[in-house]
Design brief:
379 residues; alpha/beta; seven-stranded mixed beta sheet
Length: 379
């Protein structure tokens, strides 16, 4: 039974995406150790696009036409997902995990099943955290910093909506090129906005690698009093262990999955599977937990699909439109009527004692603020 994964394993966003792939690989390693699926080995085929849409197109053809995978258990890069969406629909190819942009989830007959709080929801999480930190959203003056990719523009638009709907002010978005090693110009603009417009919060879109560049730029520029909240790519241990302490003590990253240092049913087994697959210690990252859960969801759906008498892309798609146990890693998932969004998310930071990520407040605090407004005009 062949399943694939597509994303950036060695390029500019690998510092975030590789953990997702490793988590899925670890789950499948343990699944095969237990005898596989339906008595058959599950073959995991991760493909590295190095953040290149051209490479992704080649990888997609290889996985779907040559390897004939049953499903994709994860996919990174917003530009790539938009590029792939017509073909995943044409091929009835199930994709478990976020499309990195809402476009693929709103498309008619989408085969994408999202289990991560996407950018609209993450903007609402950010708004809740910002409101608590500045004494009400009406006191917020926010500037965004985003990677110069489609999802960066999308996230910034959602943040602007969430902040302004709550009575706050969104000043502008500063864009950073993928692979940039310095952000001097952006820091000059940020400092000017702080001085002239009273910016008191920064929202951040990017991978751990690009986030470290931005946070180091803030430290070098002496911008150390402004709190930062970032997308799920920022919720990575390395941001805190490698970033400047004078900035990271006020940084949060949003995510929907609990790493193994938290009290969940999956924690011990996740750590064991990580070691079995050669990724010991990675279970302390949120993205690893996300990938691990994608593997478990696939197993549940495949067993249901097989009850129909055949395991195919079509039967798997039908089986995914239902409810799934999540081992306490995230909230229970119900894709029966809506496969676009995750039921939960929170703002995370590093717990120095365990070396893993912990939520500032429980999922339930933030979920009540999800406005479910998706597909806004991003200009």
């Amino acid at each position: 039974i062949k399943v694939g994964w597509m994303g950036d394993l060695t390029g500019p966003t690998a510092s975030s995406q590789a953990f997702n792939s490793h988590g899925t690989e670890a789950y499948i390693a343990c699944l095969n150790e237990r005898g596989g699926l339906l008595g058959r080995e599950v073959v995991y085929l991760p493909e590295d696009d190095m953040f290149s849409p051209e490479a992704a197109a080649v990888n997609f053809t290889k996985l779907t036409e040559d390897d004939k995978i049953l499903a994709l258990l994860g996919q990174g890069n917003s530009a790539t997902s938009t590029q792939m969406q017509p073909d995943t629909t044409r091929l009835s190819l199930p994709v478990i995990g976020p499309g990195q942009t809402i476009d693929v989830q709103l498309a008619e007959d989408s085969t994408w099943f999202n289990n991560l709080a996407h950018y609209g929801d993450q903007a609402d999480i950010a708004a809740g955290q910002i409101a608590g930190d500045v004494g009400g959203l009406e006191n917020a003056v926010v500037m965004g910093i985003s990677l110069e990719v489609p999802s960066g523009t999308e996230f910034a638009a959602y943040v602007e909506q969430s902040v302004t709907d709550g009575g706050g002010t969104y000043v502008d978005t500063l864009f950073v090129a993928p692979g940039a090693t310095e952000v001097t110009a952006q820091m000059i603009s940020l400092q000017t906005a702080i001085d002239e417009q009273g910016v008191n919060y920064v929202t951040l879109h990017g991978s751990p690698g690009s986030s470290l560049v931005v946070l180091q730029g803030m430290s070098d520029a002496g911008i150390t009093e402004i709190p930062v909240i970032g997308i799920h790519g920022v919720a990575s241990n390395s941001v805190w262990t490698e970033g400047p302490a004078d900035v990271t003590d006020q940084v949060f990253g949003m995510h929907s999955f609990l790493s193994a240092n938290n009290d969940s049913e999956a924690s011990a087994e996740m750590a064991r599977c990580a070691e079995l697959a050669g990724y010991a210690g990675e279970e302390l990252t949120n993205n690893f937990a996300h990938g691990y859960l994608n593997g478990y969801i696939f197993e549940q759906a495949a067993l249901r699909a097989a009850e129909t008498g055949e395991l195919s892309r079509e039967s798997l798609l039908a089986a995914l439109r239902g409810q799934f146990d999540t081992l306490g890693i995230t909230c229970p998932i119900d894709w029966t009527n809506d496969q676009r969004h995750s039921p939960c998310g929170a703002a995370f930071s590093l717990d120095p004692a365990s070396g893993g990520m912990v939520a500032a407040t429980e999922f339930s605090f933030y979920v009540g603020q999800f406005d479910r407004e998706y597909g806004i005009d991003i200009g």
